[in-house]
């Protein structure tokens, strides 16, 4: 397999959880950095990123529960 060829079936649920949590963390950090310049309006990005980070493990546990049933 080439490094550039990634099939969706190659990504396990744990890998997807890590990718989603990382994306949420990036959004939260972007929002924090933006809030230093823009103000409170950019805190929406911080909250959104944190929600994504915290929801990712919950979604993985729910998926694992549904998959085992």
The tally of helices reads 2
Average pLDDT? 82
Instruction: List the quaternary state of the chains.
Output: single chain
Tally of domains: 1
Largest sheet: none
Q: What structural category do the secondary elements indicate?
A: mainly alpha
Helix amount, in percent?
over 70%
- For the secondary structure, the number of strands is 0
Detail the poorly predicted runs.
none
Write a short abstract of this structure.
The protein is mainly α and 69 residues long.
Architecture overview:
There is one protein chain. The chain has 69 residues and is an all-alpha fold. It has one domain. The chain has 2 helices and no strands. Helix 1 packs antiparallel against helix 2.
